[in-house]
Amino acid sequence: MTVLRPPTASPTTAATIATIADEVGVSVATVSKVLNGRSDVSPETRARVEESLERNRYRRRSRRQPASAGQIDLVFHEFDSEWATEILRGVEAVTATAGIGLAVSQLGGAHSPSQAWLDAALARRPLGVLFVLCHLTEPQQQQLQRQLIPFVVVDTDSATSASVPTVGSNNWNGGLLATRHLLELGHRRVAIISGPQDVLCSRARAAGFRFAHDEAGLTVDPTLVRYGSFYVDAGYHHGMELLSRPDRPTAIFAGSDLQAMGVLRAARQLDLRVPEDLSVIGYDNLPFAAWIGPALTTVNQPLRDMAGTAAQMLLDLARGTELSTSRIDLVTELVVRESTAPPNPHP
Question: Which residue of 56, 253, 295, 305 has the fewest CB atoms within a 10 Å radius of its CB?
Answer without folding.
Answer: 295
